[in-house]
Amino acid sequence: MKSIDSALLTDLYQLTMLQGYYEQGMDETAVFEFFVRDLPPERGFLLAAGLEQVLQYLEGLCFTREELDYLKETGRFSDAFLDSLAALRFTGDVHAMPEGTPFFANEPILRVVAPMPQAQLMESRVINLLHYQTLVASKAARCVLAAPGKLLVDFGMRRAHAGEAGLLAARASYLAGFDGSSTVLAAPAFGVPIYGTMAHSFVQAHDLEAAAFEHFAHAQPDNVVLLIDTYDTEAAAQKVVELAARLQGINIKAVRLDSGDLFDHARQVRAILDAGGLRQTRLFCSGNLDEYQLQAFIKNDVPMDGFGVGTLMDTSADVPYLDCAYKLQEYAGIARRKHSEGKETWPGRKQVYRRYAEDGVMSADIVTLEDDVQEGRPLIRPVMRDGRRVQPPPALSESRDYAQREFESLPGELKRLEEHRYRVEIATVLKQLAHDVDLQQH
């Protein structure tokens, strides 16, 4: 019952609403869509991520006997309703944008069509899964675009908001184009390549810094990456040169910098290593980095080969949340629309078409109704029908390759870190439906 996969990992109001639906026999087909209302000014686009975890959740969605016993003990729910929960499984349809698709405000990236109790119950966990991975993937994508060709490694698990977040951040950043993660479980769980170096404690535990370097080199002969800023960075770089002359058949793969004036240290260390014959030894740095720091490294031509990006990405520090929602768009065959001030929704089952210029660069999107065929590429595809996947899930590496192809079609303005707004149109038929629904609901 305490598992992260528990059906009880939801908001209480999902269950209280379900009892209300049960008592009124409201189990007709509902349509919900997940979307982001507005993009924050720090994001020119978002990158869809988390769909695979949503589908896994739906495949296993059920209430155990222990969970039902707990709900009975609360005294909030009728026995008949709890009996109905015992048989609940997801039997609906899901349409979604593939993971790795850039998207924008008011564009649904997931649509659920299912009996109302099923579609309602999943709301909290679906938002939880899509929101977090989309946050991290979107920031990771900016890092990839800011530092093309550089080795990028997720270093953020230790400061992520709990273990699941750290693990999913490794997945989301790899999807967005990172080369790997320091989180070991990401390898068996998702096939994410793992990278590791050493900590300051390893150096401090030795009486001599040079001895620490030599011991680590013999302990990890195929992955000698030495942290050289525990004491004096430039002096440590010279010790690395001296160690390289003593090692037999062991190459020093890289040195890592983690503090101080990284621009200055990088230039000085590069000069020391080159003068000592270690031109193939790469420079790797970490320490509160994100896309803005990476952009500065590139702009100032700092001789850095790779970066460990951690806390600021795994917590999406500059944009810690998105104004996202999972809202009812249709029930019992009738379009529905929320009309709360500042939180209006577009009703009905929707599709997003993406248009391209002659050079293959994205030019505009149009959001319309599912059956209103428009010019361009439809982005929302069927992924689950009658509770079963339409096809086997793609490997994460395939989704990563897809994301990289999508980046190639981004307008140049969206590849930069400055604020830019991409054109998203609302189709006339969708505006008309919204007008009609407003008249009916009032």
From TrEMBL:
Q: Top enzyme class of this protein? A: ligase
Do you know which CDD domains this protein is assigned to?
Answer: NAPRTase_A
Domain (Nicotinate phosphoribosyltransferase N-terminal) spans 8-130
Query: What does the record give as its pathway?
Result: Cofactor biosynthesis; NAD(+) biosynthesis; nicotinate D-ribonucleotide from nicotinate: step 1/1
Q: Which reaction does it catalyse?
A: 5-phospho-alpha-D-ribose 1-diphosphate + nicotinate + ATP + H2O = nicotinate beta-D-ribonucleotide + ADP + phosphate + diphosphate
**Single annotated GO MF:** nicotinate phosphoribosyltransferase activity
What does the record give as EC number?
A: 6.3.4.21
Q: Where is the Nicotinate phosphoribosyltransferase C-terminal domain?
A: 377-433
GO CC annotation: what is one? Answer: cytosol
UniProt family annotation: Belongs to the NAPRTase family.
What functional role does this protein have?
Answer: Catalyzes the first step in the biosynthesis of NAD from nicotinic acid, the ATP-dependent synthesis of beta-nicotinate D-ribonucleotide from nicotinate and 5-phospho-D-ribose 1-phosphate.
The name this protein carries in UniProt is Nicotinate phosphoribosyltransferase
Q: Which organism is it from?
A: Candidatus Tenderia electrophaga
Lineage of this protein's species?
Bacteria, Pseudomonadati, Pseudomonadota, Gammaproteobacteria, Candidatus Tenderiales
